[in-house]
User: What shape does this take?
Amino acid sequence: MDKGRFDWDNWDSLDNWDSDNEIFDFDVSDFFVFERELCERVINEVLRSLEEKIKIKQILDTLECQLYLDLDSYCNSENYSDVSNGSDDESDNDSSVCSENGDNDSSVWSESGDNDSDSSSPICSESGDSNQSESSSITTSTSEDNDINPTKNYSHLWVQCENCYGLNYKRLFMEKLYICEFCDFYLKMRSSDRIELSIDPGTWEPMDEDMVSLDPIEFHSDDEPYNDRIDSYQRETGLTEAVQTGIGEINGLPIAMAVMDFQFIGGSMGSVVGEKITRLIEYATNESLPLIIVCASGGARMQEGSLSLMQMAKISSASYNYQLIKKLFYVSILTSPTTGGVTASFGMLGDIIISEPNAYIAFAGKRVIEETLNQTLPDGSQEAEYLFHNGLLDLIVPRNPLKSVLSELFHIHGFFPLTQNEIK
Assistant: This one.
């Protein structure tokens, strides 16, 4: 090793180096190179340690899930039945699994008036088919089909990205606000999760929860009747309709908010969606509250025909009174996808229009436009960045700072948090 040069590859041997025989002379540049490389190596060691801890946690959760499956298999076996002498009925193992995974849906059925006796069955089937009989259990040795679907059995542990198909560990995935850790793709969020992200804890007061859709034009299809489809989505999502409305607070500032849920029939806008949003705007007008509407929709709901198209005019009329007559402040947040009648009405009427990164925003689909105009649309022409560049959007805000951005916008426009005297 030459004098005056530092051998980084052999830096571990410095502990045994005799300083009396040789002295290293460092110039300033060598010292900073050494310091930078040392910091990089320390950071890499810390990151490697965190990755190992995450992997260990993932392995433990996987083993825990497998333990439940093995326990269920043992409890359903004949040996266990002989030893327990009929104690399976007392333990009621299946019911405990269902109660852990579906105890939040009972209020939905009582409020919507459709609390059928079989309303808990889809919840149980989503959590692993724990409510099935012994002969159909996926882990029973006497089962004819021993194939295990990993996506179904471990869906409570992993979420697959729609863009890169990478598997995201669910607990970390929720902490990252449903953003893929591999490609940074924004996956769809449930309306309840968006409310939890934006609204101060304990301040959300929902409105018009009991309002449900009927079948005004008696729409029937070969696949499934409209009323049955509504009931099916109510059981799957725990919602009564494709939008949640209510009032809450953002950093102490009272606001009125509507959040659409794409998982409920594609967030389509029917009579109930239009009525709930209209009532929310009228309430915000009377109380002089700022308004936020989070859009995620495929457009008007075809099963309700022209009645769903009427909601565009009804909401726009209420918005006119709110914005131009009362001079109040409305923020529209466009998420992926926002299309059809929602884009053509209240989605684009906001005083400030915000979008998430790479959100798909359009009126008609790319294929329909190309077939109509006989022209090829440029790539990305219906994405948020392209629309922002052409002036259709005001801001593109990631999910993490969205709450603080909304708070700053309200302060700029003269809305401030409630004082302690006003709260009392």
